[in-house]
Amino acid sequence: MRVFNLTELGAAIRSARGTKGLSQSDLAQAIGATQEWISRLENGRLPNPGFANVMQACSVVGLGISVGADDFQPEIDVADEQPSDLALSTPSFLKRP
Hints:
By secondary structure, the protein is mostly helical. Helices cover 43% and strands 0% of the residues. The chain is built from 4 helices and no strands.
């Protein structure tokens, strides 16, 4: 399964947790978090969960994390912009058609 955002990550963790028969409280206790933190993570409402915390949660529920760039290419068109303009421009995925 490929995950592209925190909402998808949370759903994957929730699904794997359910498969393992763990409650949110069980997972929270296993990684030293609160049940509320797990709930927010699983619902995509935790804006910055911390990579180490996510790795721990994934490990407990049996999910692995892999990183690769071979087939991922973001659709950002910067051909017409100067490097100094990049910080000031709106990314293409935020521009309205």
